[in-house]
Amino acid sequence: MRLLCLSLYSIVASFVIALPIYAMTDQIDFTWHKKIKLRDDKHAAASIYKPAIFNASLPSIVFITPYNRDEANKYGTYFAQHGYAFIAVDSRGRGDSEGEFIPFEKDGQDGFDVIEWVAAQPWSNQKVAMMGGSYRGFTQWATLKEAPPSLKTIVPTASVYPAIDFPYKNDIPTYYVMSWLHFISGKTNNSARFNQAHVAPIYAKLRRDGASFRELDKRLGNPSSIFQTWLDHPKYDSYWGKMVPQAQHYRAFTGPVLSITGQYDGDHLGTLNYYKNLMSSTQNAKHHYLVLGPWDHAGTRSPKKNIDGIMVGNNSLLDFKKLHLAWFNWTLKGEEKPTFLKDNIATFNIGSNRWHYYRDLQSLNLPNQRFNLSSAHKQHNVFSSGLMTSSNTLSAAPYSEYQYDPLHTKGMPKSTEHSLTGQNTAMAIDNNGVIFHSRKLKQALFLQGQISLSLWLSSNIANTDLFAMLYIIDKYGKSALISEDRVRLKRGANRDHNPNELYQIKLNSFALVSRKLPKNSRLRLVVTSEHSRYQKHYNGDGPVADQTGQGAIPATLQIHHHGKYQSSLNLPLSHTL
């Protein structure tokens, strides 16, 4: 009898769950589990928020997420209270939506179908917007690519750009790739084993074992065909390119776009790539805006004053719901443009704690000042470093040198020890990297724009990775990361490589930054080939994902700073903004 009751309960419960549920909450007309038919006869699950009473058809805001649409409840309630229909949708194969979730592959088509379904509803005025951050930001760009007629504006925040900032940046992945895939496996979020405290030690052991990066999914107990496919496409190629808009798609979209990112946002580079591509193709440049705050990835939606020890001030704490509301009131209802958007680009300066406004990226960049790298000795550590100087003084040593042995990484920081204000990385340098310091600043300076690093190298091997990290050290010796970049050297077969050949590389995908450099502070540049968060390069010829410790080759690299082979750091600097 008990089993029968349980069975009847299960049948009734599943029947109830399968039906739309309507509720009136806080003057909101709420519909849960509305099925939206997609072009392949699968159904996406949606929750719909509308004002309880409205006299005319409504503009609509769509939020598509792989993280369970319930996360959007606070937005749905807010926007419905302000006269919008808000539609939160589970991505294909996630939550209550049917199908299989394969990241990046069908989000655009599904987005098109959802947008046009919303526009066809009797309560819709056929004006539809999209919003959301991170993967939800990518989904907006993917939907724009498909050109749904009813899509009038998007607000992509901290947007993932496939193979530009995730799962790769400059061809180098981090273990977070598999951590994220583990998180979104199945229908619901796997939070307990997504966090770094669980994944980092497993990845650290994989590195110590000399195992290939390709084994990471199995080590985490979750073999992933998606992970394996991504490893087969380590560069931005046609596989990735088909997922994002191309020039003709940007040109065809005539609605306004508001892009949001932060200086410490992990998808900063992706957001800027979309924005630059849009601006190079659009015919509507005056209606596209970029907000560049000081935030990390989460802070692009929930800003805080303290970003891993870096204090950024109250002025940075934007009310993003109000900004979105003002944007939608302008673009969907014809009201005034948001007062915060005084020009097309809003940039927050860390240190002076003020917002500054610019017409375009070119006017945002301060004039470049070149800092030549030099040294009195070939090998460095944090207490005996090289020099970054704006003068043309000849370097006593023609080059700085370090060794990278993939099998000998004792002393390098563990993957959990990297932070914006920590100094573990610099302190761990001892012939396994090089460090350059500037002289103390005689007066405060503003650093704003694109940083670039030009290195003249020679090496005994043709293939390895380089990581460059730029810090500000205040007069008390406290450190804060300004930005970092990385590059994968691929110069052919090691057996054909000439160790005496000098070649130039450029690292020019540092974050777009804005900060005040205090008087008596100095800059620190760290260059190494070892970073425990990222895929280990064993310096072999084949695909790095398949390399193991058995084929490891020790590397010796020289960074030259003499004559025409002068390595330098280029910084956009000025005494004023």
Automatic annotation (TrEMBL):
Transmembrane segments: none annotated. Pfam families: Peptidase_S15, PepX_C. The keyword Hydrolase applies. Residues 325-570 form the Xaa-Pro dipeptidyl-peptidase C-terminal domain. It comes from the Bacteria. The keyword Zinc does not apply. Keywords: Hydrolase. GO terms for molecular function: dipeptidyl-peptidase activity. SUPFAM superfamilies: alpha/beta-Hydrolases, Galactose-binding domain-like. This is Xaa-Pro dipeptidyl-peptidase C-terminal domain-containing protein. It comes from Pseudoalteromonas citrea.
